[in-house]
Amino acid sequence: MGAQVWLGDGGLNRGFSLVEVMVALFIMVLSLVAITKLYVESVDAEAYSDNLTFASILAQEKLQSLVLLPRGSPELTSTWHADTSNPVYLDKRPFWRFWLVKNNDKGKGEVTVYVWWNSRKRHNTRNSTSALDFDKSSCPCISIKGWVAR
Predict the structure, then answer these.
(1) Which of 24, 33, 57, 112 is spaced 20 to 30 Å from 7 by Cα?
(2) What would the pLDDT profile of 29-47 be if each residue is shown by its tens digit?
(3) Whole-angstrom Cα distance, residue 69 to residue 60?
(4) Count of domains in the chain?
(5) Can you give the pTM of this predicted structure?
């Protein structure tokens, strides 16, 4: 009798088939697309968070300066006001500041300070001549309210 050679797995160790390679590539491409999308979203979220922080600082600063104004100041008349230094730059980013003063019978005025900024996903900001323009804007914004002596 002759000697037999054992091939181990019966000769099935031939490598990967084309279908297996294509499935593996498809899974890798899907993973890379998902990771890239997550990265882009995280960068956008970080930029929005920074802008929101800066806008909050600018709004609070403006409200505080309005509270400290004397009675009868033109900046406290019951109307829509635009900051004369618009756009206001903070960390080399432009922000637009506006405020609306509403009369109160008790000698106080309700002030709402609005700050908005540009966003990659939305329209660019512009100077606004009324609260209606502000409402129509699709730009990201922040608003805070306070009371001032009138």
Answers:
(1) 24
(2) 999 999 999 999 999 889 8
(3) 15
(4) 1
(5) 0.70
